[in-house]
Design a protein that fits this description.
- By secondary structure, this protein is α/β, with parallel strands linked by helices.
- The protein has 2 domains: 99 residues, no CATH class; 158 residues, no CATH class.
- It is 46% helix and 16% strand.
- Strands 1-2-5-4 form a 4-stranded mixed beta sheet. Strands 7-9-8 form a 3-stranded mixed beta sheet, covered by helices on one side. The chain has a two-stranded antiparallel sheet with strand order 3-6.
- Strand 8 and strand 9 form a beta hairpin.
- Helix 4 packs across helix 9.
Length: 296
């Protein structure tokens, strides 16, 4: 007797659809990435921050359901810590990647090839769990502290930043970032968000992270790089305690991002991964340069 099995879900397509839905709603609210708590979402048991597309999935879930905590646990982790997920609560699907070795299928059993496999795992917000004390809420940085922290990132990144002209851009030919004078912005927070966006572009230079997606995305490669820069800025904003990131021509960028995501179900995974790499690259640079300065 034949049995029919449930078709395996295409996780790339499923998650891409979730991000597309969030971006579509963002066209109305003019906010691309929303977040809760004091920074990037973290695992409450290990303290490790989530990365890549998982950040977007957790931010989206927190925004949708109104969670106040940026801490997350698997069902088992919650139980191990003496907690209990409340009945009826729904988890958030996140993903991890692992590399496996398998037969190349070319007739020679000694030859293998590596394959990257996507697998799901499920998280619950601390707001959904009883029996676990929430961490003490750290007072958010005031505006002066936020600005000081952002200024420190720009200064210790080592990037050449020139405040002149009317447009914000990174010029690869001279390896320089150009920003309008900060008094041209509506607020200093807006200035730093744009600066961090351009700083993410700066990390893509050949002698840094060497990002080049022209062969994959063709004429849409510019929009894809802008998506990476916007995500990188959002991750850096979260690190610095800012509430959100926003760039000029916001609606126009969303339209171009949607076009890329709808044509390539893996694009958001690549963009979020590249943004996490850029975020980490900048923070490592800043921390290293700060340490050298203190030791001098």
């Amino acid at each position: 007797m034949k049995t029919t099995s449930t078709p395996k879900k295409d996780m790339y397509a499923q998650i891409t659809e979730e991000i597309i839905a969030m971006l579509e709603s963002g066209k109305k609210s003019n906010i691309t990435w929303a977040r809760t708590g004091n920074g990037l979402p973290r695992n409450h048991k290990t303290g490790a921050a989530y990365q890549g597309v998982n950040v977007l999935l957790l931010w989206t879930a927190a925004m949708t359901h109104g969670y106040s905590s940026d801490r997350w646990l698997t069902y088992k982790q919650a139980a191990d810590m003496g907690g209990q997920v409340r009945k009826g609560e729904k988890s958030v699907s996140c993903v991890f990647f692992k590399t496996i070795e398998r037969d190349s299928g070319k007739g020679d059993t000694e030859k293998t090839e590596s394959a990257r496999i996507i697998s799901p795992f499920w998280l619950f917000n601390l707001d959904q769990i009883d029996g676990i004390e929430k961490p003490q809420v750290i007072a958010p940085l005031n505006e002066f502290q936020q600005i000081d922290a952002a200024e420190s990132v720009l200064r210790h990144s080592g990037a050449v930043i020139r405040e002149q002209g009317e447009k914000a851009f990174y010029r690869p030919s001279t390896d320089e970032i150009y920003l309008p004078e900060r008094n041209r912005f509506a607020s200093e927070i807006e200035f730093y968000s744009v600066a961090l966006h351009e700083l993410t572009h700066w990390t893509g230079a050949k002698h840094r992270l060497a990002r080049d997606f022209a062969s994959r995305f063709g004429t849409e490669s510019y929009a894809f790089e802008e998506l990476i820069a916007e995500l990188g800025s959002a991750f850096l904003n979260a690190e610095l305690g800012f509430a959100a990131s926003m760039i000029p021509n916001h609606a126009g960028y969303i339209e171009s991002w949607l076009k890329v995501l709808k044509s390539d179900k893996r694009a958001i995974f690549t963009a979020a991964n590249q943004a996490s790499k850029a975020h980490r690259y900048i923070i490592d640079l800043v921390e290293g340069n700060q340490s050298e300065q203190k030791a001098a």
